[in-house]
């Protein structure tokens, strides 16, 4: 069926669009909140953005499950990457780099700007490469876009000096287009991500010091996940390709 002359999105597509709307809302929060005149205000804004991005992460995982259960549409694969660019790319980069640059010197702001451009560029290249043929591979080449987003946001929540934030965001950009392999979200990996998500939410809402989940997230995404996957892969041999629908395969 068609909607206003265009193919009607399916249920999985609606979940994907929800991810994109989380990104749009996060951009709106950064642009429209007038109460971030200092570091405390920036942290408060980042907490809201982080909750929206984490919601997008959940939806990004769920759209694939819905596509497998209910079937996808030709729109799915393209919507998925566009939603990822909005939420995990532009919204995250604007929040981390833009807020940190508000109270930085000229050179620090310039470094943050370069890191943000590198981050968005790397995500675009990574997602394009994924859509060009890697969506059937049993693992991810380079850091997946959701992990990149939560890692970059964790750098922002640590409230590091501007230069450290710029270097960290640039490192995340490099990891996205690197040759390092990351596991897909299933089995033990999926349970670890769920536990990490719960701890992250606890930090964002103030139940625990937000620096604890932020530090654990960086450690897990940058070091533990790819290293553990490399060790397991070498011991068990290369896993067989999974039967993953192209429509909403996680990029």
Topology:
Elements: E1 2-3, E2 6-7, H1 11-32, H2 39-70, H3 76-101, H4 106-131, E3 139-141, H5 145-157, H6 162-176, E4 181-183, H7 187-204, H8 211-236
Antiparallel strand pairs: 1-2, 3-4
Helix pairs in contact: 1-2, 1-3, 2-3, 2-5, 3-4, 3-5, 3-6, 4-6, 5-6, 5-8, 7-8
Spatial strand arrangement across the major sheet: 1-2
Alpha carbon gyration radius: 18 Å
- Would you count the extended β strands for me? 4
Question: What is the helix content?
Answer: over 70%
Indicate the proportion of strand residues. Answer: under 5%
Shape: globular
Main β-sheet: number of strands, strand sense, barrel status?
2 strands, antiparallel
Number of helices: 8
The arrangement of helices and strands along the chain is EEHHHHEHHEHH
Mean pLDDT: 84
Structural class: mainly alpha
Alpha carbon gap, first and last residue: 27 Å
Q: Unreliable stretches, pLDDT < 50, 5 or more residues?
A: 239-248
Short overview:
The chain is mainly alpha-helical. It is 71% helix and 4% strand. A hairpin with a 2-residue loop joins β1 and β2.
